[in-house]
Amino acid sequence: MTTREHIASIPLTADDPTAEASIGGLVRDATAHVSTLVRAEVELAKGEITAEIKKGVKGSVFFIVALTILCFSLFFLFMALGFGFAEWFGWGYWAGFGLVFGVMLLSAVLFAFLGYRKVKKIRAPEKSIAAAKDTVAALTHRDSKSRGDDN
Questions:
Q1: In the prediction, which pLDDT does 84 show?
Q2: Between the CA of residue 59 and those of 48, 53, 56, 71, what are the distances in Å?
């Protein structure tokens, strides 16, 4: 079922052009037409947003594939570094790969520390909490006044 099939259409002419319309009838018809128009606009927006989300998901799949290939390619970079260090410094292969491991371990520790410092700075949304408490207090106070309570 397409969007156009399940949205009622707005008639462009009256059902009976010879009939005299009352004010109430005109208001009722106008309300029905506005309601139909609003529903049609919402359905159109839903259709457009759905299409754009599908495009975004398809595009993000390409980024995920590229990132996956990059992650697997890093293995070969680290292998090359291990062999390269062993060759450049005249060491055994175990020493070259040990150096690569040490550099990777230090990098991981450094980034974990930086992440910890950033996460430690996260605070509760104090302004939002205060605003929510004020709203609850105002609504509770207003509700007790409308019931006639003397609180």
A1: 95
A2: 17, 10, 5, 19
